[in-house]
Amino acid sequence: MRGKIIAAKSEEKKENPLHRQLKQFQNKDVQIEQKNSESKDGKLLAIDNYLNVAIETSEGIEFIKGTKILYIQRLN
Predict the structure, then answer these.
(1) Distance from the Cα of residue 26 to its chain's centroid
(2) What is the 3-state secondary structure (H, E, C) of 23-51?
(3) Is 0.85 surpassed by the pTM of this model?
(4) If 0-12 CB within 10 Å is exposed, 13-18 middle and 19+ buried, where does residue 45 land?
């Protein structure tokens, strides 16, 4: 006897714990130190699972690729 295969309800995507921690920096003032020794200060607008960020600086909105980031520090 052949049984029907019933698709199980797909699990919701589990969020990376590191990403969850970094999301708390969203809309806060941060300093981003890059691997090439440059640093950017501004308001963190968006961050994704690859640590790509959008930051609002005095020059405007800038996008920084996650592979270029050394660390992100929250400013007071």
Answers:
(1) 9
(2) HCCCCCEEEEEECCCCEEEEEEEEECCCC
(3) no
(4) middle
